Amino acid sequence: MRQRIIVCPVIQNDGEFLLCKMASDRGVFPGQWALPGGGMEPGETMETALRREIMEELGDELLITDINPWAFRDDIRTKTYPDGTTEDIYMIYLIFDCVSANRDITFNEEFQEIIWMPPEKIKSLDLNEATRVTFTEKGII
Question: What pLDDT digit, counting tens, does each position of 90-115 carry?
């Protein structure tokens, strides 16, 4: 089984959290609301990987002003690829609290939609399991 280290930013701006609706045809949690993030590449530090993932998924105009390591955990997930094939992956999540100075986002094909949500409304979304665990551990839902 392949192993991936995943960097995951929990991005806040003016008291709201950024959530992304995953593409319906790919990923570990197709069609569900999630936090952004992705796998570290060989030779990257955690912060370099986090900033690269934010830029790749959310564009280069989103200005992240604060990055603080928050938690880590692991699990096994099944990833679906655009061609319909699947793969079980052992995932180690490195979760960071982040603050953005703006909301200037250009998201890529991994997402269908993005939203900024106040904490009290997050539980009403169809969150993927990993995101639900993160917000539960943070005491938000």
Answer: 999 999 999 999 999 998 888 999 99
CA distance 19 to 80: 20
Residue 7 near residue 94 (C-beta atoms within 8 A):
yes
Rounded distance, CA 139 to CA 44, Å?
31
Contacts of 96 (CB under 8 A, 6+ apart): 7, 8, 9, 10, 46, 50, 67, 68, 69, 70
Q: For the chain, state the CA radius of gyration.
A: 14
Q: Which helix (H) or strand (E) holds 133?
A: helix 129-137
Q: What's the mean pLDDT in 112-124?
A: 96
Give the number of other Cβ atoms within 10 Å of residue 12's Cβ: 16
Q: How far, in Å, CA of 109 to CA of 92, rounded? A: 24
